[in-house]
Amino acid sequence: MNHNQKAKQNSLIQTSDGNFGTSYTYRGEDNRPIEDFFKKDFFETVKTRLVPADTIRVIEMKDGKVTASILMIVISRSKKKLDLDIRPYDNAEVIRYSDELVIEPAPEEEFQDVVYISGSGIVEQDKVTKMYQVKCDGKIICETDKKGLAMAIARGDAPIPQS
I need a surface site. Which of 38, 45, 131, 146 has the fewest CB within 10 A? Predict the structure, then answer.
């Protein structure tokens, strides 16, 4: 394959309307490395369509699949020679795509079920520890040093604290 070719007119597709800051997509020929599109004179054949502030999303294709892309911007175009200065947009880097879809699972957060009692609890203070015990059916459900919290848990207004 001859990699010295210039941009093809029908591969530069306008994706937005306007006279200033128009967006284009350039679909590269199959199996042509994206680095070829960075050559100074690559877009020479389409330079009359491009003006400063236009952006070009350059797409590398291999065997009919997108394998890489980068966003470029037209910095300047001289009026006499129509020389173009096209650079990667805002220090953009080439994004590479592979056949493997790798999805990292989100870290699992440990959620504990919030448990309330049905409001049939009673509160008693332990004489030795001075802790308030919430009891239900004679069993200690939880203990706290705060009487108000113990009362709210017994009424079913507050969840049972998780240990």
Answer: 146
